[in-house]
Design goal:
CATH class of the largest domain in chain A: Mainly Alpha
CATH topology of the largest domain in chain A: Fumarate Reductase Iron-sulfur Protein, Chain B, domain 2
Structural class of chain A: alpha+beta
Number of helices of chain A: 8
Strand content of chain A: 5-15%
CATH superfamily of chain B: Fumarate reductase/succinate dehydrogenase, transmembrane subunit
Number of domains of chain A: 2
Radius of gyration of chain B: 20 Å
Shape of chain B: globular
Strand content of chain B: under 5%
Largest sheet of chain A: 5 strands, mixed
Shape of chain A: elongated
Number of helices of chain B: 9
Oligomer: heterodimer
Strand order of the largest sheet of chain B: 1-2
Number of domains of chain B: 1
CATH superfamily of the largest domain in chain A: Alpha-helical ferredoxin
CATH architecture of the largest domain in chain A: Orthogonal Bundle
Distance between the termini of chain A: 58 Å
Largest interface: A-B, 48 and 40 residues
Radius of gyration of chain A: 20 Å
CATH topology of chain B: 3 helical TM bundles of succinate and fumarate reductases
Strand order of the largest sheet of chain A: 2-1-5-3-4
Order of helices and strands of chain A: EEHEEEEEHHHHHHH
Largest sheet of chain B: 2 strands, antiparallel
CATH class of chain B: Mainly Alpha
Order of helices and strands of chain B: HHHHHHEEHHH
Number of strands of chain B: 2
CATH architecture of chain B: Up-down Bundle
């Protein structure tokens, strides 16, 4: 296959960037999208040009490191798939593909397609955890959990924190990510003691980072590689109301 | 910042205001539409004028009118604030954007602006006339009533006004199509059992109410041409 790319190139966080044209020849349909970039970068290095910087790690669809807005869609055209699990067979020979970084005030571009997603880390650090005293962990089976709640918590926990929800949202809102993290713990008994402190702190941090407000367009959930549901956002809003108006937060 | 202002200045708090005021306006539209449906009767507007008289003189309805204006203004001002926050959240846009959400969900600001422009015209047509300018009087069973019906007949004898009202109701329909179910979601009402019903009800409401409103000017225009005699 032969692929034409228009890739966002930006020297560093303060420089202006722009779309640059590249041609990639000898692309195998079995290559992943990232492997196609590896091939291109090898060629660029051999030619003495600067390779394209992009984020990646596990390449198994579970780490949440890869990003890239491919032809206007975070993680590309497939449903429920990360960029690393997108293969070139999803494109046609001769296609032109536009590749851009996540766009959000809270995710500044560091270089080319790499954005700084530490805003998510700070939201987690604000309350997305359970405080555990030292000593032996008790037997997990001591805490009965309803099967349905365990399943829901697991669904929420499948969020890999990649930021595709922010990239897809017209308001660059992080509500799907934050709500998944809030719900995951709100559904389990271990999360109850800090339930309302957590939601208040995480929402405050989310706002401080400069993410937008949710207008329920549903683009986040549609583009989420883990298909996180909008019901998480409703739960977070309920918990936030309880935290602010009924609890002492 | 105390807990109250903190809650309402958060992104969730701002949206809660949009949801609550939106649902209140949705309730108002049912009352407004229900009463206005009386113009469909072929009684030269007698029952409609009597209903309008009740609405204009009842203490609780008049007090509710103040709450209604407050909710409307809050809805509009808050939407401007949310839009500004959201625009700041993405200073650099995409060169190539393929949206995976319905166009009207993304265009609530535009649709809302069109509705607001319509509301100014609509209030000038009827609310300003009946509250401040004064209406013709008509006698039913020996009692005097304001003849709001004849003002409607006059206003909708102009075909352009009928067209503007019709177009505005299309904007309203799309605004509600997103707004109705979105308000419930924002207020945290999302449940496996009830959400499908809320979405269905929202779709029916968003089509039925604006449709009834859109038909009114057309019917009155036709009545003016001599139908319904």
């Amino acid at each position: 296959m032969e692929i034409k790319l228009k890739v966002w190139k930006q020297k560093d966080a303060v420089s202006e960037g722009r779309l640059i044209d590249y041609n990639v020849n000898h692309v195998s349909p079995d290559m992943s999208f990232l492997e196609m970039f590896d091939v291109l970068n090898e060629e660029l290095i051999v030619k003495g040009e600067e390779p394209i910087a992009f984020d990646h790690d596990c390449r198994e669809g579970i780490c949440g490191m890869c990003s890239m807005v491919i032809n206007g869609r975070p993680h590309g055209p497939l449903e429920g798939v990360t960029t690393c699990q997108l293969h070139m067979r999803s494109f046609k020979d001769g296609d032109t593909i536009v590749v851009e970084p996540w766009r959000a005030q809270a995710f500044p571009v560091l270089k080319d397609l790499v954005v700084n997603r530490t805003a998510f880390d700070r939201i987690i650090a604000a309350g997305g955890f359970i405080s555990v005293n030292t000593g032996n962990a008790q037997d997990a089976n001591n805490l009965p959990i309803k099967k349905e709640d365990a399943d829901d918590a697991f669904m929420s926990a499948s969020c890999i924190g990649c930021g595709a929800c922010v990239a897809a949202c017209k308001n660059a809102s992080a509500m799907l990510f934050v709500s998944a993290k809030v719900s995951q713990l709100a559904k389990l008994p271990q999360g109850q003691p800090e339930r309302y402190t957590r939601v208040a702190a995480m929402v405050a941090q989310m706002d401080k980072e400069g993410f937008g407000a949710c207008t329920n367009t549903g683009a986040c959930s549609a583009e989420c590689p883990k298909e996180i549901s909008l019901t998480n956002i409703a739960l977070m809003n309920r918990d936030y109301m309880q935290a602010k108006f009924l609890e002492n937060e | 910042m105390n807990w109250f202002t903190q809650a309402f200045s958060s992104t969730i708090g701002k949206k809660l205001v949009m949801g609550f005021t939106g649902l209140f306006l949705i309730l108002f539209l049912i009352v407004h539409c229900g009463i206005n449906c009386l113009v469909f009767l072929c009684d030269d507007g007698e029952l409609f004028n009597k209903a309008a008289h009740f609405m204009g003189t009842n203490f609780f309805i008049r007090a509710g009118e103040i709450v209604l204006f407050a909710a409307l203004i809050w809805h509009v001002v808050q939407s401007a604030i949310v839009t500004r926050t959201n625009a700041k959240a993405r200073p650099v846009g995409y060169a190539y954007n393929k949206n995976s959400s319905p166009w009207y969900s993304r265009s609530m600001g535009l649709l809302g602006t069109l509705i607001l422009m319509f509301l100014i015209i609509h209030l000038a047509h009827f609310w300003v006339q009946s509250r401040f300018v004064g209406l013709d009087s008509i006698k039913y069973q020996g009692e005097h009533y304001d003849d709001l019906y004849v003002l409607m007949m006059e206003t909708f004898s102009n075909l352009w006004v009928v067209i503007i009202y019709f177009l505005a109701m299309i904007s309203l329909s799309y605004h509600l199509l997103h707004g109705f179910q979105s308000a419930f979601q924002t207020l945290g009402i999302n449940h496996k059992k009830y959400t499908p019903f809320i979405k269905l009800l929202g779709t029916i409401y968003s089509i039925l109410i604006p449709l009834l409103f859109a038909i009114m000017p057309i019917v009155l225009y036709l009545k003016g041409l001599g139908c319904c005699q």
